[in-house]
Structures are given as structure tokens and as C-alpha cells.
Amino acid sequence: MSKIVEVNEKIAEVVVDGYKKIETSVVEGYKKTEDGFVEKHLVREGETVEEAKGRIKKEQEEREAQAKARAHVEVNIPDSSEIVKKNLKQQRMQIS
Q1: In the predicted model, is pLDDT for residue 96 greater than 80?
Q2: From residue 25, how far is each of 6, 22, 28, 58, 60 by CA, in Å?
């Protein structure tokens, strides 16, 4: 291998290692911040941070499922104004 290729590989290793260290630090910092927030504001009495996170995730999934179900029902229910227009049109046809 040429010296340029070897130097480039070493530089690449240093850059990747540096990036991984930064990434790890950022992720760990975020997790600590998130855990602190959950512990301070969202944990119920007798509940651990992990249990609170699980409960919150489950509640969010339930809300999303309910919203999806409501949206499905709303799509399948005809607009009342359209029903009125249809009835008026039928009545006019019967009168004519």
C-alpha cells in the first residue's frame, strides 16, 4: 500500500472514532435529560421511570388507534348536508 492510502485510512479511523464518541455522548445526554423529565413530571407514585415510559408509550398508542378509528368512522359517515340535498332533490322530483 502506498503511504497516502495508509495515512488516509488512519485519518478515516480517527474521524470515525471521534464521531462515534460524540454520538454516544449526545445520545447518553439525551437519555439522561429524558429520564430526568419523566421522573420529575410524569412518574406516578410507586412507578419507576421505565414503567412510566412504558405506560406513556402504551397510552400514546391507544390514542393513535382511537384517532385512526374515529377518522375511519368519520370518513364512512355521509355529510348531513349531502343527505339533506339528496332528500330535497328527491322531493322536487316527486313534486314535478
Answers
A1: no
A2: 29, 5, 5, 28, 28
